[in-house]
Amino acid sequence: MPRFSPWYGTVAVMLSFAGGCALAADPVDPARLAASRACLSCHAPAARIVGPSFKEIADRYRGDAKAPAALARTIRQGGKGHWGQLPMPANPRVTEAEAAQLARWILDRK
Ligand code: HEC
Fold first, then answer.
1. 81 ligand 1 Cβ < 6 A
2. Cα 2 to chain center, whole Å?
3. So which residues are the signal peptide here (predicted)?
4. Dist. CA 51 → ligand 1 center (Å)
5. 88 lines ligand 1 (CB under 6 A)
6. Which CATH architecture has domain 27-107?
7. Do 54 and 43 meet the contact criterion of CB atoms below 8 Å apart?
């Protein structure tokens, strides 16, 4: 029988810590989400296509505490009049959690 080693306890603590981190991470990469929800047919990271670039959006709302919630709503319900004549259509396929994740990701573009 091996004598008790403090290593066993240390390894167990490290494993449970790693598991907790994996659960806390975003489930889907937001860049892949933007592609799969067709956002990229109208938006590009740095150039205007149909809608404003993600960088322009991040620049406009930087430091605005209400922006994450407001943009998440726009992403799901659509919007108009903030950037020009063209409206953004609603995206009913995007869940609330996905919209919040996309809004945070867009606001993080620099
Ligand atoms: C059919 C083209 C189109 C698609 C698809 C589209 N957008 Fe837009 N988006 C626009 C236009 C046009 C605007 C500018 C609307 C305005 O002037 O208020 C806009 C504006 C935005 C804004 C800024 C809103 C504001 O109030 O300033 C965000 C954020 C955004 N889009 C994110 C997304 C995301 C995320 C997706 C994918 C789920 C998406 N868009 C899909 C055309 C599109």
1. yes
2. 49
3. 1-24
4. 6
5. yes
6. Orthogonal Bundle (1.10)
7. yes
